[in-house]
Amino acid sequence: MRIFGGYFNxxxxxxxxMGGNIIRYPFRxxxxxxxxxxDLLDIKPHNxxxxxxxxxxxxxxxxxxxxxxxxxxxxxxxxxxxxLSIVASKESDHRSILLVLDKEDDLGRSTSITSQxxx
Length: 119
Known about the structure:
It is a single chain. This protein is mostly beta strands. It has one domain (3-117). 13% of the residues lie in helices and 37% in strands. The protein has two helices and nine strands. The protein has helices at 27-37, 74-77, and strands at residues 3-7, 17-18, 40-42, 52-53, 63-64, 67-72, 81-87, 96-104, 110-117. The radius of gyration is 16 Å and the shape is globular. The mean pLDDT is 80.
């Protein structure tokens, strides 16, 4: 099973950024190639969208999803249920992201694998 997580400093889709000027993310094409060539899925957070902000109280406020967890599609074949959460942060301009992979066995018991990318 392959899982990659962290600060990729790129958005995948235009709706993953709010505020500021429209800019081109040169790493985006490489990340899209990695996803398709390696059979990886970009897990979307269930409790929000943005993982970074410039924390401006005045002026231009910018927020974006720059942090990602990429999970190999075999996780879904193995009946793992990936859940991504964004965790609040007061010390950093990045919020931590928490990935939990849950799997239920035939008796209904749940096993969890947890991984966190934090600043």
